[in-house]
Records
---
Amino acid sequence: MIRKNLSVAAALGVGLAIALAAGSASAQVKLGAVLSTSGPASFLGDPEKRTLDIYVQDINANGGINGQKLQLVIYDDGGDANAARTFATRLVEEDKVFAMVGGTTTGTTLAMMPVFEDAQIPFISLAGGIQIVEPVHKWVFKTPHTDTMACEKIFADLKRRNLTTVALISGTEAFGKSMRDQCIAVAPRAGISIADVENYGPADSDVTPQLTKIKSLAGVQAVINTGFGQGPAIVTRNYRQLDIAYPLYESHGVASKQYISLAGPAADGVRLPAAALLVADKLAESDKQKPVVVSYEKTFEAKTGQSVSTFGGHAYDGLMILIEATKRAGSFDKAKVRDEIEKTKGYVGTGGIVNMSPTNHLGLDLSAFRMLEIKNGDWTLVPDSNS
């Protein structure tokens, strides 16, 4: 693997940007990625990077795609949207990639989308916000479940528990705000009342005042936290310190063992919607996803020594959807590859079974989400909630 270290601290203030090239130096086909491998979203970006590294190396070791090996070029945006846009422009103008798999966060993805749309280069995002695919943008796709789907899955679980009045506490970053807004929009038709909405910033180290206010309100039966990064772990710890009795739900933005580690014993009892990947060994043998998620889990853990997260799984799905589309296209022609991505049908991935179309650049339905509960520091499936 060729590695080029590029310092962008002076220009961008985001620390070190790393470009990694997988494959031989003479490779003619470049695949781009801009990921948040440092900064507040690094627990998402790091497994994404590791996944792309592992599987591009594997693809090249087995002869490449359409007779050519891939050269993987990855830049670290540090979670900074301006840096992400700069690196997207570099991938287009200097690296001349044929496609892009990346965009760790909603904010960085939204910053990069116009670059790849204008250049007419297929872009498969790894971020959660629904704005990435609604409305549909011709050259943009994504693999993670949307924040709207997360709200719907949580609300369905609340209704099964006869809980109908909730409070929201929201991170102020792009994903947190987006999921907050989606939950507010979806709540009326789901039969859920929202009693209060509180917010916290990415640098906040304590959210006790916001949670104290929620605790004082009459009628609240559950709390939903929309956010990712370290914020949800702080919310969870403060929640238990205040001895709030009703259930706490987190977003799929915490679907990593790192969240459990940061939150500690306070995480026990928390519920969240997540991909089947987190409970690979607990799936029924008849589950179509089981062979895929078990294989990815074994490969990732053997290569990295780390536990899997859904975020690495998103990168795996994005890469494999792209590779299969490129094979069907029979070339690296950008327009043909784009068309074939849009025709993806029946792809069984770590996030679910994907069926895309000209009006659906995600291709997942609500059945792709599993409702999980953390017990004794591990993921468990919530009975009767995953139909």
---
Amino acid sequence: MVTKYDVFEFMYSKGSIIQPKEVATYFKKLDKDYKFIYRLMTDLAEMKQVSKSEHGFEVIRNKKNDLLYQMIQFCVSNKINYNELLDENITAFISKGFLKKNFGINDFDIHPRTYSKYVNILAKNGLLIIISRKPLIGIIPYNSFLKNLVAYFSHKVLVVKHKENEYFSEIERELKKFNRLKDRNAIVYRKIIDEFEISFIHHSLTLEGNPITLPDTIKLLRDYIVPKNLSVESIEEVKNYQKAMQKMLQDALNNMPLTKNAITSYHYLAMQHRDDIAGKIRDLPVYIKGKPYFKVAKVEEIEPKLNILIKKYNEFRVKKNTLTKILDFVAYFHNEFQQIHPFEDGNSRTTRLITFHLLRTQGVPIFDIPLGLLEQYLDSTKGAKKRNDNSLNQVLQLIILYNLKTINERLS
């Protein structure tokens, strides 16, 4: 059924005076549905989102309506049903969730079914991390989209600083479950990997400024339909990153070690649209745009630092490591490689690939960074004003837990 937000999105995109009949035609509604569409447009006028005149209806341009459109577009880009989230009650739930590190039903004065509904809506879109199902406990990661969503409905946006938690016991419990389930459901597991792969490619390249949406990423990589509204370079960037990820996944499956050659190979595949730099260690200084505090290695430091990092990796990989030691080393490895910054461009996307490789060869399956944690991940890596491996460790724990919970629930 068409909603007022569907109509608002169409009218905002249209950007001109419009008649209800044109809206009805766009949504393929029959003449008998004209009154319903007209009522929705009248409701929007009462909400001060559109204006009504003798000439028709037109969107009112102001900060609040611009924000609404931006949130809708964010949802469309990430294949989220915005009609589920643009609701005063669920935003009140999110507002309260921001105040808690971990929360359960006793933290909310709502019916258990409503609580479960809100948790599941947010979780399926990667905007909530489920810690346990019985009892149903979750975390709502703070990010700009949820902050704007809460503020739009005039709820308080308060985030309480909590002590850092460790989720090793939950991860270990889910790992045992995963190892039991994956071989029993090989076909389902393969399907899950394919879905995660496309989602990760979209999320990873979104962090690098690629404008492709998740629906278009699916069409391009699964259905081989090329989007018409993107540049050739943006499309090639997506296709090339898929090649690099598939090579990484195969190498990890075969337990191949990370070597300098393997790393440059991933970069070469990911950056083939830039054949001048693909797979080549840089020989000139670089700076991170907008991040003057993020210091990278000087040209003459790259090879020595890279050799030391790979040496430490080789020493690590031959040991029998606990989950705690794995996460400690992975956080160090990720940040160290990113700060060495061995390539002219494409360092962060390569860092994510080799980090995933490292985790998977240590028996920790990770395929994606959920949408709700992208900002925290970025803020704990190249977005951090000061390097903090422990902060990244915390985010990685939640990323891993999200991956395991999602996979295990699908396999069960």
---
Amino acid sequence: MTPALADIRDAARQIAGAVVRTPSVPCNRLSRLAGCTLTLKLENLQDIGSFKQRGALVKMLSLTPGQRRAGVIAMSAGNHAQGVAFHAQRLSIPATIVMPEATPFTKVERTAEFGARVILHGEGLDQAAAFAAELARKDNLTFVHPYDDPMIVAGQGTVALELLEDAPDLDCIVVPIGGGGLISGIAIAARALKPGIEILGVQTALYPAMLQALRGNQPTSGGETIAEGIAVKSPGVLTRAIIKDLVADILLVDEPALEQAVMKLAEDAKLVVEGAGAAPLAAVLANRERFAGRKVGLIVAGGNIDSRLLGSVLMRGLVREGRVVSLRVDITDRPGSLAQVAGLIGACGGNIMEIHHQRLFCDVPAKRADIDAVVETRNADHVRELVDRLTAAGFRTRVLGTTADG
């Protein structure tokens, strides 16, 4: 059964007071960068850091007393797991969560904190799902699907009710797609309330499962992505039909674009956002002409990013933008040479973060040395200025490999 606007409104009434009514906020700095007017729907501010608790709560509120006593089971890479566990604990429903073995530690720990029994099984969601279905049959548990369920779709659709109440003049809404539950609910609600609005989906280029399913292409999903929340190989059947009818297009974004979007949301919007939650911004920044001058709603779907990964993404972003650079400087190995190099870098406005001598390798003459210096800079132009200043002073200098484009 495909839910309708009335079902989504009913879902909104059911979850009122139990789920955060998240804000929809403009971001002028990101809007200038993107060349359009952006409104961010901040689902990363939910209690569990994700929209997923909306649908999970609607589903669990529909259970009979007997089903509640027996308990529920879910499979998830993290956010759906936390949504189920959070409200199961609140409603005194026993919960078992099956998560892929590579699920980020932060999502595993937070799920367990809500009192759920967490089982790590399989390399991905498909294997986790099969194992969860087996346990559900064995232990008579109610399976709470992460996306392919009318009640889940209705619950996720409440995001659109709130967004359009806050920003009724939007021209389009950009939504991340994993299994398709979120974009299906949003598309049903938004197109019913505002028929002319355009709904666009975003998938990571490594996991284009929904796009391939709609086009009838052979599936190719696989690989390491920072958007594990939408790294789904088997899209929903119910959601696929809804997306086919109501979604205008699905855009693909690569890993550098996702990393850039996570960094821009942190720097320019002061938001901690996971890869899947940053995917809509990544799509807009990668397709500026398509969105130029339009009023665009971005669903910031989640903020559950591992701290170590966030730190790595932010540092890689600084390197990509030329704000941290590794320089190799050829010097004469005698007193004062290192001080002279450091003085030149400092006089040019660079800040040395790390420095190492390379004296022992055969490609370095015995009376010379290489200095590898990690330097904080303003931008790529500043890097070129540093290299030119050192070269002019007689120190052969080159930039070591970076993550910068080109």
---
Amino acid sequence: MTALPAIAARLGISEEAAALHYESEICDLHVDSFIWRRIYGYDFRRRHAAFTAGVMMSQFDLPRAREAGIGGATWVITTNPLGDSRDREAKFFENLAELSELLNSPEAQARVVRSAAEYRAARAAGLHAAFIGVQGGNALAHSLDALDRLSPGLVLRVTILHLTSSRLGHTSSPLGSDHGLSPYGKDYVRRLNAHRILVDLAHISRAGFWDAVDAHERGTPLVVTHTGVSGVFPHWRNLDDDQLRAVANSGGTIGIMYHSEYLGDPIFGGRLDTIARHIEHVVNVAGEDHVSLGSDWDGSIVTPRDMRTCLELPKLTHALLERGLSQPCIRKVLGLNFLRVVESVRG
């Protein structure tokens, strides 16, 4: 790796921030690069230039992630909401096999992992540790038994809703309503608990959020993997303070995303310090043990102009130091909080 003073100079950050960043375990809760593999054949195993200038795709690949010190991430399979539910389920299992094969290939220098222990083993071997997640629980909602077909532990988490409503419940987006989870959706939450699959409450309506909290197994952490917070910027995509406290009370964590418009900036004029403000708000409301990185890299987002791709992530560490967060707190945000949650469920 390039010497830390050179990295600090290139990025315009302090040497303290560079040292803290590269000494920390960094794990991102939500990376959506696989969707561009499916649509355009984007190969996230090789290095790319940011050919879209931080707009929608080419924000993340494995070589740049390694250079940025990102040791692991949850790689998501995003559900196509259209079509017959049986076809959607079959396509999901095809995508799951393909993503697993790509991540485990020699070119990736990565390993699919199912627990915190496997994460640490992959990192000790010098590999990127890749969890797998599902965005849009309707991928496996044709029957509750579909969840039983998953290889044990292979899927770490399921984001119950995405940008459209389903038989499970209602999205928070303008396409939804503030109705909650259906009875079937509540049973789905319980089945996820039984399989030790984390329940992710990003994208869900507020009523659905509270229905999921009620249905969820006590003592098992909830997660919200990629969101903003309404205490900084009120928006249909963001969580309010009561929701932050509910996730914290479950022992879970909240991943802060990087889409400028949802965080309160002009869509093409975002600043990474706004991300830092959202992180700081969660620390102040829910505590430093309950906030993480949930970038949504390549998830059709527009990144801050001063952090267009994952290569500039050390700038966020610098911004958190500038806001007065302690080094131990920042280490938790960068990865330790999420790994604690995984370990509490999976070991």
